[in-house]
Amino acid sequence: MRFNLMLATSKTIYALSSGGLPSGVAVVRVSGNGAFRAAKSLAGALPMPRQAALKTIRTRNGLIIDRALVLTFPGPASFTGEDCVEIHVHGGKAVVNTLLDELSSFENFRLAEHGEFSRRALENGKMDLVEVEGLADLISAETEMQRRLAMEHAAGGLSDLYNSWADRLTRARALIEAELDFADEDDVPGSVSDMVWADMKQLHRELSDHLAGADLGEIIRDGLKVVIAGPPNAGKSSLMNALAKREVAIVTDIAGTTRDVLHVDLNIEGYAVKLYDTAGLRETNEIVEREGIRRALRTVADADLVLSLAEIGEEPQRTFPGFAGRVLAVGTKSDIHPGIRNGYDVLISAVDVAGLNELHELLRRDLQARSGMLSLALPSRLRHRTLLTDSLGAVAAALASEDRGLDIRAEYLRQAATSLGRITGRVDVEDLLDVIFSEFCIGK
C-alpha cells in the first residue's frame, strides 16, 4: 500500500517539460483542476483521453499561436493524479513563450516549480519517495548501468522490497500483541515466539545482505572513484590523458607540474568511472606542492580503487594513509623499459598506448567483481543506507533482548518498520521533500 498525503491544492501549474529551446518539438505540460478548461479555451473541443489530436492553438483574442498535438489525461489516471494536458508545439522560443504567457493569464494558474509535477504525483499516491528519486536519477543517467539502476527504483522494485519487509515487521508485531493480550484465550496459541523470531532472524540476514550492496549502488549512481597516485614523473598525467583520450592534464618533465587534483568522467562497460589525477607524492618543503600532496592523499583516502604508478624498475607504493581498498600496481614507460614484468599488475606506455587495453580490462573486471549480482534492487543513496542501518540495528536489538519482555522487543520492531517507512515516505518525510525535488528540472 502506498502512502497518500492528499495535500489539497487550488493552483493549476504549467511548464515546459521537454528539453532546451530551440528544438524540433516542445512539450508544455499543464496539471490541475483548470487544465481542461484552459485547453478547451486554447484548442477548442478536446480529443478523447490519451488520444492525440492536431489542433490550432489560439489566444483568447483569437490569435493563432501554432498548430499542435494535444493530449488529455483525466485524473486520477495521470502522472500527477490530477487532470493533465500536454500540448506538443514547435520548439521555437517565441512559440513556447507565447503559449506560456497565455497560460499565465488564466485564473489560479502559475508556472510550476522544480519537480512540482513529480511532487504532486507523490502527494496523490502515484509514486513514493524511492520511485521519485529513481525518476530523478533516470533523467540524469549518463551510463547504461545508471539507467538500469534508476529504472529499477523508478519502477518500484526497491519499494516493493522495502514494503514487503515492513509488512513482515507489522505481522510480527501483531502476533506479539496477540500473545500479550490474549495469552489465556483458547483461540490464541500459547506461544508464537518460534515463528516470529525465526522470521526476524531471516529478515536480519536479508537486511544485512541488502546493505552489503549499498557500496555498489552508490558506485553505479555516483561513479567508481579511481585515483592515479605515485611519485613525480611516474606518468600519472600522461595516463590520465591517454584514458580520457584528450589533454586533461599538463605533461612536462618537470617534477611537481601537477599541483591540484584533476578529474575526468569515463564510461567503462556502462559503468560511470570518475578518474582523478593527483600531485606527485614525495617529501618537499615547497608550500604549494605540499598542499597539492595533502589534497592528493585526501583524495586517495576517499577512493574506491587506486592506480599506484611507478616507473618500471621502481617499487610502487602499496599502502596509503586512510585507504583500505584495492591498489593496482602500474609500471609505466614500458616503451623504454622492455622485458621487465615482475612486481606490477600491469605495464603501460602512454607514448605508444601499450598496456592501456589491459588496464581497461582490469578496471572492467573490478567493476564486474563488485557487481557480482543480477538484481539492481540496491540502495544507492546515503539516506537509504542510513535508514537501512537503523532498521537492521533495531531488528538486531529485538533479537538480542530475549530477557527484556515481548513489549520491549515489539517496540524495537516498530522502530525497524518506521525506519523502512521513512525510506519510501510512508512516515515522517515532509522535511525531506524540498531537498529531493530541488534536484528536478522545472517541467518534471
Automatic annotation (TrEMBL):
<feature type="binding site">
    <location>
        <position position="233"/>
    </location>
    <ligand>
        <name>K(+)</name>
    </ligand>
</feature>
<keyword id="KW-0819">tRNA processing</keyword>
<feature type="domain" description="TrmE-type G">
    <location>
        <begin position="223"/>
        <end position="368"/>
    </location>
</feature>
<feature type="binding site">
    <location>
        <begin position="277"/>
        <end position="280"/>
    </location>
    <ligand>
        <name>GTP</name>
    </ligand>
</feature>
<dbReference type="InterPro" id="IPR004520">
    <property type="entry name" value="GTPase_MnmE"/>
</dbReference>
<feature type="binding site">
    <location>
        <begin position="252"/>
        <end position="258"/>
    </location>
    <ligand>
        <name>GTP</name>
    </ligand>
</feature>
<feature type="binding site">
    <location>
        <position position="126"/>
    </location>
    <ligand>
        <name>(6S)-5-formyl-5,6,7,8-tetrahydrofolate</name>
    </ligand>
</feature>
<dbReference type="Pfam" id="PF10396">
    <property type="entry name" value="TrmE_N"/>
</dbReference>
<feature type="binding site">
    <location>
        <position position="257"/>
    </location>
    <ligand>
        <name>K(+)</name>
    </ligand>
</feature>
<dbReference type="InterPro" id="IPR006073">
    <property type="entry name" value="GTP-bd"/>
</dbReference>
<dbReference type="InterPro" id="IPR031168">
    <property type="entry name" value="G_TrmE"/>
</dbReference>
<keyword id="KW-0630">Potassium</keyword>
<dbReference type="InterPro" id="IPR027266">
    <property type="entry name" value="TrmE/GcvT-like"/>
</dbReference>
<comment type="function">
    <text>Exhibits a very high intrinsic GTPase hydrolysis rate. Involved in the addition of a carboxymethylaminomethyl (cmnm) group at the wobble position (U34) of certain tRNAs, forming tRNA-cmnm(5)s(2)U34.</text>
</comment>
<feature type="binding site">
    <location>
        <position position="29"/>
    </location>
    <ligand>
        <name>(6S)-5-formyl-5,6,7,8-tetrahydrofolate</name>
    </ligand>
</feature>
<keyword id="KW-0378">Hydrolase</keyword>
<dbReference type="InterPro" id="IPR025867">
    <property type="entry name" value="MnmE_helical"/>
</dbReference>
<dbReference type="InterPro" id="IPR027368">
    <property type="entry name" value="MnmE_dom2"/>
</dbReference>
<keyword id="KW-0963">Cytoplasm</keyword>
<keyword id="KW-0460">Magnesium</keyword>
<dbReference type="GO" id="GO:0016787">
    <property type="term" value="F:hydrolase activity"/>
</dbReference>
<dbReference type="InterPro" id="IPR005225">
    <property type="entry name" value="Small_GTP-bd"/>
</dbReference>
<keyword id="KW-0342">GTP-binding</keyword>
<dbReference type="InterPro" id="IPR027417">
    <property type="entry name" value="P-loop_NTPase"/>
</dbReference>
<dbReference type="Pfam" id="PF01926">
    <property type="entry name" value="MMR_HSR1"/>
</dbReference>
<protein>
    <recommendedName>
        <fullName>tRNA modification GTPase MnmE</fullName>
        <ecNumber>3.6.-.-</ecNumber>
    </recommendedName>
</protein>
<comment type="similarity">
    <text>Belongs to the TRAFAC class TrmE-Era-EngA-EngB-Septin-like GTPase superfamily. TrmE GTPase family.</text>
</comment>
<dbReference type="Pfam" id="PF12631">
    <property type="entry name" value="MnmE_helical"/>
</dbReference>
<keyword id="KW-0479">Metal-binding</keyword>
<comment type="subunit">
    <text>Homodimer. Heterotetramer of two MnmE and two MnmG subunits.</text>
</comment>
<dbReference type="InterPro" id="IPR018948">
    <property type="entry name" value="GTP-bd_TrmE_N"/>
</dbReference>
<feature type="binding site">
    <location>
        <position position="252"/>
    </location>
    <ligand>
        <name>K(+)</name>
    </ligand>
</feature>
<feature type="binding site">
    <location>
        <position position="254"/>
    </location>
    <ligand>
        <name>K(+)</name>
    </ligand>
</feature>
<feature type="binding site">
    <location>
        <begin position="233"/>
        <end position="238"/>
    </location>
    <ligand>
        <name>GTP</name>
    </ligand>
</feature>
<feature type="binding site">
    <location>
        <position position="444"/>
    </location>
    <ligand>
        <name>(6S)-5-formyl-5,6,7,8-tetrahydrofolate</name>
    </ligand>
</feature>
<keyword id="KW-0547">Nucleotide-binding</keyword>
<feature type="binding site">
    <location>
        <position position="86"/>
    </location>
    <ligand>
        <name>(6S)-5-formyl-5,6,7,8-tetrahydrofolate</name>
    </ligand>
</feature>
<feature type="binding site">
    <location>
        <position position="258"/>
    </location>
    <ligand>
        <name>Mg(2+)</name>
    </ligand>
</feature>
<feature type="binding site">
    <location>
        <position position="237"/>
    </location>
    <ligand>
        <name>Mg(2+)</name>
    </ligand>
</feature>
